[in-house]
């Protein structure tokens, strides 16, 4: 995949290392978007679901709404 994908994976690893759940949710959502652009919808959905689960746990209303909007799009 592209340089973007590698950067998102690095951001995800850093977020997990420093235990920043919001950053982790953002990185996962970005990976989901990257896979969507490649039309790999199963992986896109997987990353979005992971991001949503974190957003719900950290009570991020804005991130939850954003992810639900994207996730719903993939379901059609």
Task: Give short descriptive properties of this protein.
single chain; 76 residues; mainly alpha
Structural features, described:
- The protein is mainly alpha-helical.
- It is built from four helices and no strands.
- It has helices at residues 3-18, 21-37, 41-57, 61-75.
- Helix 1 (3-18) runs antiparallel to helix 2 (21-37), helix 2 (21-37) runs antiparallel to helix 3 (41-57) and helix 3 (41-57) runs antiparallel to helix 4.
Task: Summarize the helix and strand pattern as letters.
Answer: HHHH
Whole-number radius of gyration? 12 Å
Q: Residue ranges: pLDDT <50 for 5 or more in a row?
A: none
Q: How much helical structure, as a percent, in the residues?
A: over 70%
Number of helical segments? 4
Q: Approximately how much beta-strand content do the residues carry?
A: under 5%
Shape: flat
Q: Report the average pLDDT across residues.
A: 82
Major sheet: none
Give the class from helix and strand content and strand pairing. Answer: mainly alpha
Number of strands: 0
How far apart, in Å, are the first and last alpha carbons? Answer: 25 Å
Write a concise synopsis of the structure shown:
The protein has four helices and no strands. The protein is mostly helical.
Layout of secondary structure:
Blueprint: H1 3-18, H2 21-37, H3 41-57, H4 61-75
Helix pairs in contact: 1-2, 2-3, 3-4
């Amino acid at each position: 995949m592209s340089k973007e994908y590698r950067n998102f994976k690095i951001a995800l690893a850093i977020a997990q290392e420093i235990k920043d759940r919001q950053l982790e949710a953002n990185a996962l959502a970005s990976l989901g978007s990257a896979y969507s652009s490649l039309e790999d919808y199963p992986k896109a959905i997987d990353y979005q679901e992971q991001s949503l689960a974190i957003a719900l746990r950290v009570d991020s209303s804005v991130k939850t709404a954003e992810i639900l909007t994207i996730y719903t799009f993939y379901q059609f």
